[in-house]
Amino acid sequence: MKDTAVAKLIRQETERERRGLELIPSENYVSKDVLEAVGSIFTNKYSEGYPGRRYYGGQDNTDPLEELAIERAKKLFGADHANVQPHSGAPANEAVYYAWLETGDTVLAMDLGHGGHLTHGAPVTRSAHQYNFIRYKMKDPTTGEIDYDELRALALKHKPKIILAGFSAYPRELEYAKFADIAREVGPECLLMADMAHIAGLIAAGVAKNPFDYGFHVITTTTHKTLRGPRGGLILSKGTVSNPLKAPEHTLENIPTLIDRAVFPGTQGGPHMHIVAGKAVAFGEALEPAFKEYARQIVKNAARLADELKKRGFTLVTGGTSNHLILADVYGSFGIDGKVAEEALDEIGLTLNKNAIPDDPLPPFKPSGIRLGTPAVTTRGLKEDDMARIAEWMKQAIDARDDKSVLATLRKEVETFALQFPLPSDQ
């Protein structure tokens, strides 16, 4: 690369990733093939529209590429339709809202403080000003049980047009059948939507439940995280697919076409075809038998890491994990906020993020918790016994957070260990 300033930063980031361990549950390492696809010649091409219905010429290769990504996504998740164009998870959610809702319509979604996502109605987002978000919570944060009685009461009172099951910091599995029962009580105009951004890879591998099996109409997701693809979005749906250039009747059966129209031209312009190429590669990798074993190992590693953290005095929200992520209350455990813990762990090469806990007494930028997970370290090849080592390093770093000498020693230990596990792009 001729741009030495950018080249230097790329090299530095490569070394940072090699010499540390990535524990942020929404991050992962992609394969060399995904990196090659994302850096391909497809970055040059404008492809506004959909296969066979583009606004520009020269689509000889983009149409079959997008069709390949669509077919692989449908096969992975058992969907009738897949829109592979969303630039990320937030635009994917926005597109579904735009497809089904009118301004002022109600959405019932998980409270941000209890594990939900910003795009599920947090007041700081644009969608929260356009739609009426009602929030459900955990009944008991020590076990993770959702208050389904409250959820049902809220649904019957407010008659939401969308009931949204999904999360960004919830370590347990949702009971999709209960969501479906409640939606049926609300009425035939209630769309069931699942945001599976965090657990898409687990669902694709059959390790976590598939909301489509319980009558859900729409699933949105990112394509990174557990799915191990490029940074992007994906919308999957059940129903009849028709020409997106013609406005269909506003029915749940037509939701695939309504979504296509909401993505383009409703909420974004042309797709990023180099990212669609990376998605196609990642979906193909996820269809391989090895991916199923990878997903099973994610869950095994997370369960072991949760147990090892509890042994060392960490209080865990919901008492543990049933998926890939862990939420620990470091304020209740050690009297420090999550920012202090995050920075101490950064010092030794363990990367995770500060995070609020349910009904957090501390402010958002210095919350009580930290969020961590196992998708990326599992990609590197770490197994259950390695989780005990990570938990011990975490406890030592927190205990020695003001001792630069101890942190430096721990940093060397982490680096020596991490270098035994090459990045996928190094292999």
Q: What CATH architecture of the largest domain would you give?
A: 3-Layer(aba) Sandwich
- What is the radius of gyration? 22 Å
Average residue-wise pLDDT = 96
Task: Compute the separation of the termini in Å.
Answer: 21 Å
Helix count? 16
β content, as a range?
5-15%
At the fourth level of CATH, the homologous superfamily of the largest domain is Type I PLP-dependent aspartate aminotransferase-like (Major domain)
Total beta-strand segments? 17
Return the CATH topology of the largest domain: Aspartate Aminotransferase, domain 2
Overview of this structure, please?
- This protein has two domains: 33-286, Aspartate Aminotransferase, domain 2 (3-Layer(aba) Sandwich); 294-422, Aspartate Aminotransferase, domain 1.
- The chain has helices at residues 4-19, 32-38, 62-77, 89-100, 126-130, 148-158, 176-186, 200-204, 255-267, 273-286, 289-311, 330-334, 338-347, 375-380, 384-399, 404-418, and strands at 21-22, 49-50, 53-54, 81-83, 106-110, 132-136, 138-140, 145-146, 162-166, 191-195, 218-222, 233-237, 315-316, 325-329, 350-351, 353-355, 369-373.
- The protein is an alpha/beta fold.
- Helix 8 (200-204) links the parallel strand 10 (191-195) and strand 11.
- The model has no long low-confidence stretch (mean pLDDT 96).
- The chain has a seven-stranded mixed beta sheet, with helices on both faces. A four-stranded antiparallel beta sheet has the order 13-14-17-16. A two-stranded parallel sheet has the order 1-15.
- The two termini are 21 Å apart.
- Helix content is 43%, strand content 14%.
- It contains 16 helices and 17 strands.
